[in-house]
Amino acid sequence: MKYASEFRDPVAAKAVLAAIARTAEGIGATREKPLHIMEICGGHTHAIFRYGLDKLVHEGVEFIHGPGCPVCVLPMSRVDEALQIAARPEVIFTTFGDAMRVPGTQGSLLQAKASGADIRMVYSPLDALEIARRTPGREVVFFGLGFETTTPSTALSIQQAAREGLGNFSVFCNHITVPEPIRALLDDPDMRLDGFIGPGHVSMVIGTHPYDFIARDYGKPIVVAGFEPLDLLQSVLMVLSQIAEGRAEVENQYARVVPEHGNQVSLAAIADVYERRPSFEWRGLGEIDASGLRIRAPYRAFDAEAKFGVGYGAGPRQVAEPEGCACGAVMTGKIKPTACPQFGRGCTPERPLGALMVSSEGACAAYWQYGGARAAAE
Description:
The protein starts with 9 loop residues before the first helix and ends with a helix. The model has no long low-confidence stretch (mean pLDDT about 90). The chain folds into two domains: about 1-320, HypD, alpha/beta domain 2 (Rossmann fold, 3-Layer(aba) Sandwich), CATH 3.40.50; about 325-375, no CATH class. The protein has helices at about 10-25, 40-50, 55, 75-85, 110-115, 125-135, 150-165, 180-185, 200-205, 210-220, 230-245, 265-275, 305-310, 325-330, 355-360, 365-375; strands spanning about 35-40, 60-65, 90-95, 120, 140-145, 170-175, 195-200, 220-225, 250, 275, 280, 285-290, 295. Helix 2 packs parallel to helix 16. It is about 40% helix and about 15% strand. The chain is of the alpha/beta class. The strands form four sheets. A five-stranded parallel β-sheet has the order 2-1-7-8-9.
């Protein structure tokens, strides 16, 4: 913790908050006419509520919570396909824990496990590889989920399986990319965004240049941020300073972790194993061109979609959201979680209706964890 304390210094935080207030007032931001800054990453959303930053910043600054949780944007159709694979008697289905309770139309992986399916929680795709080595008579499937942050580890695991000839290992690939949905949001005429807080962990892999189009094509500032309170406050100030000075640039507040050109080893593994899908369905956003990854032909033997005949090309894609669930509107920043008619009523952490209440990075889970009954009452 001694290395984190400087990023939680209350004296420094007060100074940055004062600078934010001066800059916001200079721009003319008020409660009635706030500046909308979208934090893309779900980890940032939780940090904002954990430290109360939404209450501390100037009233003319409003945080908009973006689609920054890969579990939350997973469409129900993909959960149904995961359940279809997991139900096969020869399959051991492995997944990260935050995907266990995400509901599909036929229930969740946790419910399928309770009904007898062999579904196991793992901490890494390497755990799934080890299960495949120990059980050569079973098909071991890893639920590949996440943005560019987790994509390299899955790619490296597929490469390792190929080297070892582990024919009983495959990946149900649902890896997605961050820049494309940002473009979709900016193209939405109903969205009014003044700037972005860019994701730190994703940028650690891809660098800062994939966001150049935000400033170049749309004239919006974006600052890649860390996850401590002073990281986020400084990033807000950097966004406001760009607006005040009439600039639109990609800036890197998280330079202690994020290299300009990303992690070359990770990028090489991604390029070797994956290719872009023509389109991919995002919960709340619909189909977005070139926003999903699929396994390339040389590694097709490790593609669970090809092995089990599910996924794109195997049937209808879109599945309607549960009645009354407003996950899509929340994820696109059009409403706050408390505006969803199911929040705290039909949807709670104990009995989630939508993915935003399930995931540890979901906006609804953040509102509930740090606001709880008060947020539900509001």
